[in-house]
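Dataset card, provenance and construction

Sequences and ligand SMILES were collected as paired inputs. For each pair, a complete structure of the chain with the small molecule in place was predicted and serialized as structure tokens. The example below shows a pair involving magnesium ion. Curators did not alter the output after generation; any descriptive sentences attached to a record were derived from the structure itself.
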Amino acid sequence: MIELVEVRKTYRTGSIEFEALRGVSLRIDQGEYVAVMGPSGSGKSTLMNILGCLDTRTAGSYRLAGEDVGEMDEVDLAEIRNQRIGFVFQQFNLLPSLPAWRNVELPLSYAGVPRGERRARAIAALERVGLGEKVGNRPGELSGGQQQRVAVARALVSEPALVLADEPTGNLDSTATADVLQLFDELHAQGRTVVLITHEQEVAERAARIIRVRDGLLAEVGVRS
Ligand SMILES: Nc1ncnc2c1ncn2[C@@H]1O[C@H](COP(=O)(O)OP(=O)(O)OP(=O)(O)O)[C@@H](O)[C@H]1O
Ligand SMILES: [Mg+2]
């Protein structure tokens, strides 16, 4: 599903260049659950942004579901993100003025799904994450764990093949972390590919495979038996 070959990413800040990824080759098959670990600044979010087509690599190749992402323009990339990928971030990234269900239906409105269907699917997704009673609440009226479950509902409402999560439990207590990890287990059990960045070993151990990033390189790829 994911195939990176010698991917590099150089950031330019004024005249200063920084190579955040220095030649990363990685293959992730459809249906795998992979955790990405590594020190702060090692390049995990950079890697995730490239996997999620939120940013483009400077060199190397990236194929997603057989398609060469490097050949695509911004319109194609936006379509890939919308149709194939669900995102969950540490900071939830919900729109504060919208009730939960409106936040969840947003990816569907970008995809041109009709209004009535959007609402029904958003509510069904919120029910799947255990928030059927909170569909009308705004993010500020929900706990952190509930807000992250709204974000998971938003990630799964479009039925994406790939779910990318960057420190999704970083702001959650242990109970809310357990709830969110349970949801990722379910997504994995449904055959979706899940890639999760985390600093926490217990969180990473939910995945079948742990990838370590260090100084812009994959230091080690561990596969649990
Ligand atoms: N937009 C940018 N412009 C310049 N440098 C950047 C940019 N984004 C990231 N970097 C640099 O690239 C390196 C990797 O950053 P990245 O965000 O991928 O790290 P990370 O592994 O996700 O760290 P953390 O665990 O703290 O989230 C860092 O040195 C960072 O300063
Ligand atoms: Mg990061």
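Derived descriptions for this record:
The chain has seven helices and ten strands.
The pocket of magnesium ion (ligand 2) is lined by residues 44-45, 166 (CB under 6 Å).
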